[in-house]
Amino acid sequence: MHSDVIALIPARAGSKGLPGKNIRDLCGKPLYRHSVDAAIEAGISKIYISTDIEEIFSHSLPNGVSVVRRPLEFAQDTTTMAEVLLEFLDTTHRGGATVVLLQPTSPLRRPDHIQAGLRLFSTGDCSLVMSVCEANSGVLKWGQVAGDRFQTLSDPRFCFANRQYLPPVYRPNGALYVFDADTFRTNRDFSAASIKVVQMSKEESLDVDTLDDFGKCETAISQRLSQ
Fold first, then answer.
1. How many CA atoms lie less than 13 Å away from 31 in the CB half-sphere?
2. Buried b (16+ CB within 10 A) or exposed e, 136-152
3. Which of 58, 88, 111, 126 is the one with CA 20 to 30 A from 119?
4. Does the reported pTM lie above 0.85?
């Protein structure tokens, strides 16, 4: 068990792509419960759900899971994740801790991904651990236009390289972030000073935003359960 670790699952009511998605049934339990259960299986004993969804307050949840009412001003389309985290850290959990942020829209994240993130963070030589997955290397050819000038986003040599010779690139997939509570309060945002990563496959990195995404997650979880 990780006694100095807390998990935070931010579950907001509003969703334009798929209304009510965070409490929509996914293979026998609400979408957000997949993140709760992953945290428990990873050995985290203190789990918080920050939410404005009234229904969650009446759900039966395992010991160690607390539901925290999120003020409406921090549950808007324009609310940033940093604002959600600071509201939670300034009001609900004022002490120090290693925080594991688990967004409920990443139900294919596994407990071992969380454990890997905690192991990396415990080495003490990084400011943040986050999950990533491989992305299209073609972005290395991209750039911005300033007036009539093209400015490459990366090494200019990549702009005209054959695609098969481009190096692999990775993107944050939003499934896992591990950071220090006190450092976050001080910086008021994530620190990019030194970031370590937990790699996840593209399939595991699916983020639920639409009904089609939901269906793909149902298929993936059903296949896991049948194995």
1. 27
2. ebeebbeeeeeeeeeee
3. 88
4. yes
Q: Which residues pair with 134 in a beta bridge?
A: 170
Q: What gap in Å lies between CA 61 and CA 149, rounded to an integer?
A: 57
Q: Are 30 and 3 in contact (CB under 8 A)?
A: no
* 118-169 pLDDT per residue, tens: 999 999 899 999 999 999 999 999 999 999 999 999 999 999 999 889 999 9
What region, left, alpha or beta, does residue 27 occupy, with left being phi > 0 and alpha being psi -120 to 50 degrees? Answer: left
Ordered alpha helix ranges (H), the chain: 31-41, 81-91, 111-122, 181-187, 211-226
Question: What is 2-133+170-220's CATH number, 3.10.310.40, 3.90.550.10, 3.30.390.50, 3.40.50.150?
Answer: 3.90.550.10
Q: How far apart are alpha carbons 11 and 2 in whole angstroms? A: 23
Q: What is the DSSP letter of 5?
A: E
What are the structural domain ranges in the chain? 2-133+170-220
How far is residue 203's CA from residue 151's CA, in Å, rounded to a whole number? 33
